[in-house]
Write a structure and sequence with these properties.
alpha+beta; 6 helices; about 40% helix; about 10% strand; 5 strands; three-stranded antiparallel sheet
Length: about 170
């Protein structure tokens, strides 16, 4: 394939009255190439074929990890390695950047109150498995496997809280 410069040269030589054979000799190409370029209205453009990426098989997983969990590229790399990805971090970071630009970022409204006006309370349940990381929690093996009900209250104007395990 000839470039734009050669296309203009073929046109110029033809306008001067040169034959297709003369143009082919001067340009060092075949007559068929000269004929093909004379038929074109504009120079041929080089288009590189889009090759397959190593990320193609895991792109849906990456998108889900960013949308659902907002994981970093380092953390995503750990996850997709389990799916057989053996590519580099650079290509992953570039792809993550494009996904993050496409999605909207939710605004966060900071809500503060005067001291003593508001508190947050959490209540839940879990099964105690029999070991403790705090001295105020019993490590008695008799409690292992029993359902526990934690209660947490945090006062907003400071991070002090009250926790109770029943």
């Amino acid at each position: 394939m000839l470039g734009a410069e050669e296309w203009y040269m073929i046109r110029e030589l033809r306008d001067r009255g040169a034959s297709i054979s003369e143009i082919a000799r001067q340009m060092g190409t075949s007559r068929n190439t000269v004929k093909r370029h004379l038929k074109l209205n504009k120079p041929m453009e080089y288009r590189r074929k889009k090759g397959k990426s190593k990320l193609d098989p895991v792109k849906p997983i990456i998108k889900m990890l960013i949308d659902k969990y907002n994981l970093s590229a380092v953390r995503i790399l750990e996850e997709i390695r389990k799916w057989g990805y053996d590519g580099s971090m650079t290509i992953l970071k570039d792809y993550c950047r494009t996904i993050r630009k496409e999605r909207s970022i939710k605004a966060v409204y900071r809500f503060e109150t005067e001291p003593g006006k508001q508190a947050q309370v959490d209540f839940g349940s879990f099964v105690y498995i029999g070991f403790a990381t705090s001295p105020d929690v019993s490590t008695n093996g008799d409690d292992a496997g029993k359902r526990k009900m934690p209660f947490t209250r945090i006062i907003d104007h400071h991070s002090h809280g009250f926790r109770q395990l029943q």
